[in-house]
Amino acid sequence: MAYPEFPDHSRFTPVASVLAGAAEGEVTVRGWVYRTRSSGKLAFVVVRDGTGILQCTVSKAKVAAGDFDAACSALRESSVVVTGTPAADDRAPGGYELRVSGFEVLHYAETFPITQDLGDEHLLDNRHLWLRSRPMVDALKVRATAFGAFRGFWDSQGYTEVQSPSFVSGACEGGSSLFDTYYPDESAEGGKSFYAHLSQSWQLYAEATMFGLERIYTLAPSFRAEKSRTRRHLTEFWHGEVEAAWVHNEQMMAQEEAMLAAIITAVLARNRPELERLGRDPAVLEAVQPPFERLKYAEVLELLNGMGFDLAWGDDFGYREEKALTQERTQPLYITHFPREKGFYHRPDPADPKVLVCHDLLAPEGYGEIIGGGERVWSPEELAARIAEEGMEPESYGWYLDLRKFGSVPHSGFGLGLDRLVAWLCGADHIRDVIAFPRTMRRTTP
Ligand code: ATP
Ligand code: MG
């Protein structure tokens, strides 16, 4: 078909304003066919746009013959322009319907490949189309609110947003989840190329940037070649990271609590309908109230072993452990005082150097870790010793070591997994349900 001229936007009314009862007289909406039911004389076409879904009732007697045929024959996802008069109707979704006077099809869709009950893999293969579904649209709206609230909170606290590179040369979270990327260097001898890594965290760069701005944050993708295939691991995830000079661990935890409260408040203010459609009871989020309980790693170890786990000092808590620990909880839980093996840049506790001045925050209901943070080693001697102790090559961290030579200061920071946070806020079964194009070890398409 020939596409019509690009239409005049001022003619159209968003579905949401029809549903809010704000539209007067005849209106024109545009969108996509969501579902259709028709008899010989009447067609009920539910149309969705970016703001909502609206039942359009087309009576054969009240429209041109061609318009009625169009309404009956346009398959799901056909793009349409519908004119009519809004009327309150309890039986219609949203309490309003449109009594149609004109029905125009802009583009007749082919048979949509997604029908009910086709399984997760099919939906993932068709993610480019599934993004039109209500659960996806609702989750993406909650996600957008959470991202905005994250930024808004740190801006309001006087933090400056900065960006760090995605191509990096050193690891900060352990080599096993590091992505090596081909980095073409045409000028190299024999046309050889070298490898760069994809950033696992902005950590080292944040510490460098902090000296100029003192309090900084970022919102960016981090990359981890996760061997663990769980409901909460992506290979590319969105990382909200914060770093601040002169701030100690406890202060950072208090700020995180305030941040989470602010994000939850924003989502409750803006996304109640989305949460409800997703089957998430907003009361669960309303009940979340800092300060959150704090347990030491050693205490958690004991708790878990009491539940039947067989964990020794130094063992990591994985999905099973964190699930057991949090599934009956309604409030997030802090774990502190992890063993010093957790990472070279965390500051060992001066009072007990076998543990670190650090924390993880676990979301309740089995969602597990959403934040990892703590104080950084700031003494130059201690940092060099830690790098040696971990068997790492000091040459790879030359510039990072430099930071400790010019006015080093105590500082803290953390990383928040935004996708994990949103999965919890939405009550999602899987982290991939809350990101448009999930990247996992097995999937880079579509
Ligand atoms: P896990 O033990 O669950 O793999 P981690 O200890 O590796 O997490 P950190 O290095 O502390 O995580 O990263 C900070 C935060 O980033 C985590 O608390 C989590 O919310 C998020 N995160 C880390 N890895 C992933 C991932 N693969 N997918 C999604 N989010 C992640
Ligand atoms: Mg990990």
Describe this structure in words.
There is one protein chain. It is built from 14 helices and 18 strands. It has two domains: 15-107, OB fold (Dihydrolipoamide Acetyltransferase, E2P) (Beta Barrel), CATH 2.40.50.140; 124-434, 2-Layer Sandwich (BirA Bifunctional Protein, domain 2). With 446 residues, it is α+β, with helices and mostly antiparallel strands. 30% of the residues lie in helices and 26% in strands. The chain has an eight-stranded mixed sheet. The protein has a five-stranded mixed barrel with strand order 1-2-3-5-4. The chain has a three-stranded antiparallel sheet with strand order 7-9-8, with no helix packed on it.
Please give a quick description of this structure.
This protein is of the alpha+beta class and 446 residues long.
